[in-house]
């Protein structure tokens, strides 16, 4: 008879979105209904009567299910945890940037290392910091990115592709800066190494183009 | 019950908070408690109950956790927060005040 009860609950949730929240609500309702059903059986009701009695108290679930379809709203606790996590990532990244500069000065002034060594060390540290920032930005749940309202209407696939494009662009520009400094220092080519940035712009356009072509 | 349910509906959340003030509980147990306390004159629909749970959880009045029953479906337990307790005290005061006002308005002799 539990199966019949479960079937009724499934029917109730036919229009519900397939989200964790909906699944949890279904499980909560099922647990409560089974217990109510058991109590009615203990009170001497027939299986039919108990099933009817349990389902009679369910009420109108339509507005509750409709609210599940609206944009997912995180609980206060989730929001707090997320923002703490994000703050930690950003703090560490900023700390690393400053550490990178300190490392450069330390290597050059105290240990008398070659300028290139210090620079490579700094850029390596900066790369880690940039990676942290990109990871932080891309792994944040969508509801926390209220500052980008234009994304709201995108389908999940669009959003994923745009996140990917953003990541690729960030990595591209970090690499371009690294290459610029390396080439400039190693070949002392400061007079014309700026051309790398022009090439960078071209590369970015190519990346965007590739993404757009894939879309077709 | 149908006549009074409109009046009670406005206090659904306070009623739930009051049940949770004694101990953590879950949907069916709360409803059973309500029936016993009112000699079967009052019981909430499941839909009403869960809507209220969601609202209360969203506003930080209660938190929830899953029980470890393994009879197929787990119970979802709710705990009142300090925020929720403060709200309960406030709502009780408001209700006492409203009761006094309404009593003096409808019981009063001309």
Please give the structural blueprint.
The complex is a heterodimer of chains A (216) and B (110).
Chain A: H1 2-12, H2 20-42, H3 47-56, H4 62-69, H5 76-110, H6 115-139, H7 156-187, H8 195-215
Chain B: H1 2-9, H2 12-22, E1 25-26, H3 27-37, H4 46-58, E2 62-66, E3 76-80, H5 82-106
Antiparallel strand pairs in B: 1-3, 2-3
Helix pairs in contact in B: 2-5
Keywords:
heterodimer, A: mainly alpha, 8 helices, B: 110 residues, mainly alpha, Arc Repressor Mutant, subunit A, three-stranded antiparallel beta sheet, globular
User: Quick one: biggest sheet of chain B?
Assistant: 3 strands, antiparallel
Overall 3D shape of chain A: elongated
Strand coverage percent of chain B = 5-15%
Order of helices and strands of chain A: HHHHHHHH
Q: How many domains, in number, for the residues of chain B?
A: 1
At the fold tier of CATH, the topology name of chain B is Arc Repressor Mutant, subunit A
Helix content of chain B: 55-70%
Q: Structural class given helices, strands, pairing of chain B?
A: mainly alpha
Indicate the low-confidence ranges of chain B by residue numbers.
Answer: none
What is the H level of CATH, i.e. the homologous superfamily of chain B? Winged helix-like DNA-binding domain superfamily/Winged helix DNA-binding domain
β-strand amount of chain A: under 5%
- Summed up, the domain count of chain A is 2
Q: Which architecture of chain B would the CATH scheme give at its second level? A: Orthogonal Bundle
Low-confidence stretches of chain A: 146-152
Number of helices of chain B: 5
